[in-house]
Known about the structure:
The protein is mostly helical and about 90 residues long. It is built from five helices and no strands. The longest helix has 26 residues, at about 45-70.
Amino acid sequence: MSPAAAANVEESGASPTDDVLALLGGTRTKASLLAECLDGADDDRAEGWRDYVDAVCDAALSRARRQASRTGERFGLQRLEEAGVDID
């Protein structure tokens, strides 16, 4: 996570863990997470929020890939793809 993203998380109280789980659970999309993060954000914070969303998506993808390699279950990867996360 970039320093700008980390600063946004610290200031806002955002929960990367909760956002990863929401993506994996299919209750959140990449677009909806970004929209929520950017809603009301100052222009100088926007890039940090984009970095945050990318980092959350990367963490969710890493977790889903680990699960798929351990169990053969690709459901998490399918959910992420449906959520707009590039899984390639």
